[in-house]
Amino acid sequence: MTIQFFAMILLAYLIGAIPFGFLIGKYHGRDIRREGSGNIGSTNVTRVIGKRAGQLCFVCDFVKGLLPVLAAWQLAPESELPLAVGAAAIVGHMYPLYLGFKGGKGVATAAGVGVALAPWALLTALAGWLIAFFATRIVSLASIVAAVMMPLTATVLYFSCGEPSVPIQLFFYAVGAVAILKHRSNIQRLLAGTEQKFVRSPRPGKEEK
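and the corresponding C-alpha cells:
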C-alpha cells in the first residue's frame, strides 16, 4: 500500500500541475503569463480572454483538486491519504512542473479539495468570498477572506457537531496560511491602497459575445 500511496500523491501533483489557464490562453492565441496580472488562474483568464474562458478555467482547476481527493477517499478512507493527495494537487497548481514551477495561487484547486473534505466549511468560505468580492471588486481581498474563513468555520463545525476532524482542520489552517503567503504582494498593495479592482482588459479585435 505504501507504493500505492506514493503513486497517488505523485499522480495528484501531476494532475494539479496541469496549467489549464495557460492552455486555454494558448488555445486563444494568448500567453496568459504575459498579460493582465500574469497569473495562470481563472481571474486573469477572465480579465484577458473573457468570462466563459475564465469559467472554464475555474471549473478545470476546481476539478483537479476535487477528483484526486475523492479517489483517495475510495482507496483509503480511514487514512491521511486524502489530505496528502489534496496537498499535492494544490502544490501542483502553485508550482507546476510543466511551467518551470511557476504557477497560480491555488484558490480554485483548494476549493475543489475543500468540497471533498468539508463541503460546509467550503460553502461558508465561498459565501465570504462572494460578499467580499461584490463589496470591493477586489479578487485578492476576497480570496484572503475565504482563506481565513474556511479553517475557522471548520473549527466551529467541529465544536458544534464533531466534524470535520482535527487533521482536516489543521490541513485547512495550513492551506489558508500558504494561500495568504501567496497573496503577500497583494496584501502590500491593499495596505498601500493601490490594489486594482477587477476589470476585464480590452481584447484586440472582436469582443466575446
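(Above: one complete record from the training split.) Confidence is low (pLDDT under 50) at residues 205-209.
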